[in-house]
Amino acid sequence: xxxxxxxxxxxxxxxxxxxxxxxxxxxxxxxxxxxxxxxxxxxxxxxxxxxxxxxxxxxxxxxxxxxxxxxxxxxxxxxxxxxxxxxxxxxxxxxxxxxxxxxxxxxxxxxxxxxxxxxxxxxxxxxxxxxxxxxxxxxxxxxxxxxxxxxxxxxxxxxxxxxxxxxxxxxxxxxxxxxxxxxxxxxxxxxxxxxxxxxxxxxxxxxxxxxxxxxxxxxxxxxxxxxxxxxxxxxxxxxxxxxxxxxxxxxxxxxxxxxxxx
Length: 262
Known about the structure:
Elements (H helix, E strand, L loop, with lengths): L1 E2 L6 H16 L16 E5 L12 H13 L6 E6 L7 H17 L6 E5 L18 E8 L2 E10 L7 H8 L3 H19 L9 H4 L19 H11 L8 H16 L2
């Protein structure tokens, strides 16, 4: 069972494993000091997410069809690679299906196939306590001053954090969206501690609406960074109509020096 944050390298690890095993089967050298792989007769993969428009199949239907093909054709020497199985449906359905498939492969009386199962469902880490051949591993990260550093190392133990909002910020989502996501996350975690979401207390009762209708609009004049606030004040204090070209260039140079910390 492989957990870890978004972008940490779980999918890359699965692809790497498939390629190394395939290379070993045909007698190639593999990128390792040593490798004990054994004979593998089939490599099954369920990696990536895509629909099948021509056949009228949704992403989840494609995912389930491929999973069904895998578990119906397992052998003792198979290698099975699952990447985030169940993500195409609701959280509880996804966890339930993923758990059932992992348990089926583990308990299969005819074929104990070697399996790597990458997932964001951290609840599946609990399976290692019940099923003797399941081991938890995670792709490690380090958090420094609110920033995530991807270490690209596989280590023993489960992970309990996906850092999805950090990745959204890295991707360039407006700060207002990231802040709102963090706020919603805090409220949902608090709701979970108070008994969770139910029909009596739906999601809308746990999340406070945006007070400012323009609060989600990215604006230079709404940023909380002290340096940007200082630059904002510099600009607001300018009498643009009475600036000479030279004074305007000097002021622009001052702002540049502020940004560069000189």
